[in-house]
Amino acid sequence: xxxxxxxxxxxxxxxxxxxxxxxxxxxxxxxxxxxxxxxxxxxxxxxxxxxxxxxxxxxxxxxxxxxxxxxxxxxxxxxxxxxxxxxxxxxxxxxxxxxxxxxxxxxxxxxxxxxxxxxxxxxxxxxxxxxxxxxxxxxxxxxxxxxxxxxxxxxxxxxxxxxxxxxxxxxxxxxxxxxxxxxxxxxxxxxxxxxxxxxxxxxxxxxxxxxxxxxxxxxxxxxxxxxxxxxxxxxxxxxxxxxxxxxxxxxxxxx
Amino acid sequence: xxxxxxxxxxxxxxxxxxxxxxxxxxxxxxxxxxxxxxxxxxxxxxxxxxxxxxxxxxxxxxxxxxxxxxxxxxxxxxxxxxxxxxxxxxxxxxxxxxxxxxxxxxxxxxxxxxxxxxxxxxxxxxxxxxxxxxxxxxxxxxxxxxxxxxxxxxxxxxxxxxxxxxxxxxxxxxxxxxxxxxxxxxxxxxxxxxxxxxxxxxxxxxxxxxxxxxxxxxxxxxxxxxxxxxxxxxxxxxxxxxxxxxxxxxxxxxxxxxxxxxxxxxxxxxxxxxxxxxxxxxxxxxxxxxxxxxxxxxxxxxxxxxxxxxxxxxxxxxxxxxxxxxxxxxxxxxxxxxxxxxxxxxxxxxxxxxxxxxxxxxxxxxxxxxxxxxxxxxxxxxxxxxxxxxxxxxxxxxxxxxxxxxxxxxxxxxxxxxxxxxxxxxx
Lengths: 255, 427
Ligand code: SF4
Known about the structure:
The complex is a heterodimer.
Chain A: E1 3-6, H1 10-23, E2 29-32, E3 43-44, H2 49-62, H3 65-75, H4 82-94, H5 107-129, E4 133-134, E5 139-144, H6 151-161, E6 166-171, E7 176-180, E8 185-188, H7 211-225, H8 233-239
Parallel strand pairs in A: 1-2, 1-3, 5-6
Antiparallel strand pairs in A: 4-5, 6-7, 7-8
Chain B: H1 6-17, E1 48-49, E2 55-56, E3 58-62, H2 89-101, E4 107-111, H3 118-134, E5 141-145, H4 152-161, E6 164-166, H5 174-180, H6 186-209, E7 221-227, H7 234-246, E8 252-257, H8 276-291, H9 296-299, H10 313-320, E9 327-328, H11 334-338, H12 345-354, H13 362-367, H14 372-375, E10 379-380, H15 389-392, H16 394-403, H17 414-425
Parallel strand pairs in B: 3-4, 4-5, 5-6, 6-7, 7-8, 9-10
Antiparallel strand pairs in B: 1-2
The complex binds iron/sulfur cluster.
Residues 67, 69, 71, 74, 76-77, 113-114, 181 of chain B line the site of iron/sulfur cluster (SF4).
């Protein structure tokens, strides 16, 4: 087994691609250095920005912007097989002068394409299901627990939409988030906070006046919207998967 | 602005508005002016889903549920003894803003019962939109349901603030509409529809000449048809829809399975449950007409005036036209590939691109998302030589596909799911 380990960053992966070509060696297993556990490894990647950039530029020369973006999106899925698929695809791209981007007959292309769709869809769910709670200092706070590492893909949308309010969106699974202060957005990490990650809630003592009332109004609105003659729990769960319920005010106390 | 009785009012006026099925917030493009609040995304976003599986995108609410009209199919009709109330302009503005800032909604969908006169009601609704845009500097989505019989001037004014205007036709033939809604006729519905269409046309003209022309209902207009309250056939409904898309340039036609809210009314059929399957089939057909290049008369016609409830309209079309199949995946036009049951727009595109690199086999098709269980009867590909519809006869294929219902994740609730995918993933 030719097992390589790296730090699970996108730059780390691009460095890995670089070293494949440099060492003329192809890993058949790629794992996260955090979780290497009992397994041994044959080669360890030290993330190197220069190498990463050269690979990223090289990819851009060979494929369209859309396909390059597809690689980045698929990578965010954090799926165990994704690195090997990406490597297979990138090696094929570099190995030929033909355009192989749309060769959907190849497993790696079609799998990467499907992963990209899943990732983009998860990012859209942030736009859909984020619920802000207003705090005493006028900041709108939201917890989110995405399946894939997609928070960065959603920031642009919220900057544009809520340009006139301060907000925080926090990934409770990966323990980082973004804070927009009316001027710019910065990445933040809570060390000690007044947020309960299980419920996603800001502590009641720091909620703005009327916040709980609005959550109550929204919940009642949601309940009033349901047409009982059409009730369809299966469809409901298909569109609104249960894993999102914990942070939605309208789904509190529901089975 | 939030008063003790707001919660009660909200429950009544949301409950009264819920039967209007349209909730889309798509099709507009209203960027944030810079430091204002909100923007309207061209693709529309659902923020929640009701327990009946419908998208909640907008704060769908009535200004008031008092109404001087007496439409037989409506819960708010004059004769009904239901709790009645009304919101003020300020209450609605504040609710919209507060919900919007918390990312509960994409915007407001305001309708109303008719109080005093159609013009008075329309004027009140326009005030809400105007205040949101001018005082609150709000750029989120606004859908106003225009009141049948409102004057063209008022409808035009509403169009300056709204992203979408709609006038509900409700009933697919005028005589049946008059029977159920004596105060309405097609004139009172089509005249505001025409003024909206003319407004949009004039606006497009002006935009060509003057750069700074304000937007006029950038997301266009839509309507709703109730299904199953009258004997109107699917053929009548789909030809009306075609007309509305082509001649009135409507953005969307919504179909709403009739829910027997007033079962005491003898003019209405006695239903045990709303016709949800039929509603679903109509959405699927509408979808096929808008994205799969099907024409209404290919789906329903004199010999088949109603859609088959057992199978979806695309499969039904294939079963009625077996001579078109099997289709060679590696050669056929994109248009023909789109007509194969089990193949959607995405996989059709992948097929056309992927086959340039070599002939495709069934394993590859499956990877691309083709539902082979369905498609196998209608295609030939590299190695596949299973029995197709011509050897097996349409009756048998239908039996094979309906007996153990083909349930794949994608096709469980095709109609409703497609509504969803349209708003999010295709544009
Ligand atoms: S005018 Fe509208 S609210 Fe009034 S009864 Fe008719 S459908 Fe209902």
